[in-house]
Amino acid sequence: MQGDNLKGSFNHQLLESIFSTSKKVIQEYVREIERSNRYKSVRSNVTEGVVLDDRARLIDLYEACLQQDAHIRAVLETLVSQILGDRYMLARQNEKGKYIKDVAQTQKVQGTQFDKIIRGIVEAKLYGYTLLEIMPGTDPRTGRLREVNIVERRNVLPDQCRVVKRQGMWSPGWDLTDKAYRRNYILVNTGDLGLFSATTPLILAKKFTVANYVNFSSTYGQPIIHGKTVSESNADRKRLANEIVNAAQNKVIVTGLDDEIDIKAFTMSNSEKIYTGLIEFVNKEVSNMILGSESMAGATQSYVGSTKAHQDIFRERIEVYRRFIENVMNEEVLPCLVSMDYIEPGLEFKYSNRIEMNNEDRIKLYGLLTDKYEIAPDEVEKEFGIHVGRQLNVLQLTEGLAAGGSGEGRVSTNDRHIMSDEEYYKRYGHSRGAREVVNFIRGAK
To answer: Which of 74, 112, 149, 282 lies in disulfide reach of 206, CB 3.0 to 4.6 Å?
Structure first.
């Protein structure tokens, strides 16, 4: 994990694990679930020294599905994109309950090493647990955390709170409840087998479904070319067969006068939907399990209302992940960083309350706000990257109200001043007296 032996850290030698992430079947998954059930049944009567909570083979199943299924990888990338970035901050709460961002301290918790912490916390929801190793000290080049590691899960016994050097063996090992390791190691344990426990059997079934679908397509997807010849000679028949085989590349076939070539195309059927239906079902279930909605993972919906409903469910699911991250950060990680004198005490980790919306909705929102409130140019540049100057509609409204109130600069119109100046501006988009009346018939003012 690290090159030097530091006080309160594990031995610098690498943990010994066995990786087996190929040729996985559902029967292996069933055996690991049975192992977990046996452990839960007897753990209260077992003394220390016996390895029971060994999930190494279960982790093999999880990672095999993660490595071999493109859909779940895409779903996880969508999830990670919603929890990383500039959405979080370190802030203090004032007397009114508002969080005030500390810019200098927030910069310390940004970067690749701190992203590992957030990713590890999210993976605890997926795998069931994560052991984080936060090494003291900062990088002299960046001034941020020097090293953060996610300890190999195969060597962690989460419910027994122990790390073993050799997978499946109790000794040598390290007890995470010891005071010496509490400063640098944080065990995030959700208490279950993680969300992957529900997606793994589906993906294992999907893997064999895809293999069968490939065989089906190669067998029945290509038409059969049938050749007929009147010759009784085997040599002539073989010659015609070779000509048919080579015709796919040469695009030319030469036959005798009485030879016939016929392409036997299979009639269309719904047989292939047996496979495609199962694949779509698995993808849908995986997306719903992790993101809360299949449409957020690329699936299309039949109408706009359905898409918006799925977006709302997706945003609520992301809020659940963010709340889980905030709780772990404030209860476990930040006290560790404060004890290392890395950040100042009294700060809280918070995600911003910014509304998640697409570009079209953001443009509509800013269009609505600029007609009623004055928006700072810096805010527009921050949101859209566009340099803007003064807000023209605010200037027009101010000048129009000044002219209307003083009685100067008014234009003779049919306006009987029933509406107030503010209502007039909202209805017509300009203030009283801001425009001159043009007589287009005479072509003069």
So the answer is: 282
Please tell me the distance from the alpha carbon of residue 126 to that of residue 336, in angstroms, as a whole number: 24
More confident residue, 285 or 262: 285
Q: Would you state the structure tokens that stand for residue 363, as one six-digit string?
A: 């443009």
Calculate the CA dihedral of residues 3, 80, 188, 335 and round it to 10 degrees. Answer: 80
Residue 87: exposure state from Cβ atoms within 10 A (0-12, 13-18, ≥19): middle
Residue pLDDT, tens place only, 368-401: 777 777 777 777 777 777 787 776 666 555 555 5
So what's the pLDDT on residue 2?
43
Instruction: Take residue 316 and report the two structure tokens written for it.
Output: 């609520």
If pLDDT is split at 50, 70 and 90, which confidence band does 146 have? confident
Is the Cβ–Cβ distance between 142 and 111 less than 8 Å?
Answer: yes
Those residues with Cβ within 8 angstroms of residue 140's Cβ, 6 or more apart along the chain or in another chain: none
Q: DSSP assignment of 189-237, as one string? A: E-SS--THHHHHHHHHHHHHHHHHHHHHHHHHSSPEEEEE-S---HHHH
What SS3 class is residue 186?
strand
Q: Edge-to-edge, what's the strand order for the sheet holding 99-101?
A: 99-101, 88-93, 348-351
Tell me which of 211 and 204 has the higher pLDDT: 204
Interior/surface letters 137-158, b for 16+ CB within 10 angstroms, e for the rest: eeeeeeebbbbbbbbbbbbbbb
Question: By the 8 A CB rule, do 352 and 87 touch?
Answer: yes
What does the radius of gyration of the chain's CA atoms come to, in whole angstroms? Answer: 34
User: Is pTM beyond 0.85 here?
Assistant: no
Closest by Cα among 60, 81, 69 to 291: 81
Could you please report the per-residue DSSP string of 394-409? Answer: HHHHHHHHHHHHHT-S
Identify the CA nearest to 173 among candidates 19, 49, 45: 49
Given a contact cutoff of 8 angstroms between Cβ atoms, the answer to whether 369 and 383 are in contact is no
Please state the separation of Cα 184 from the chain's center in Å.
Answer: 28
- Amino acid (one-letter) located at 181: Y
| Helix (H), strand (E) at residue 348 | strand 348-351
Distance between start and end Cα atoms, the chain? 82
Residues 2/6/10/12 CA torsion (nearest 10 deg) = 40
Which residues does 316 contact at the CB level (< 8 Å), separation at least 6?
Answer: 292
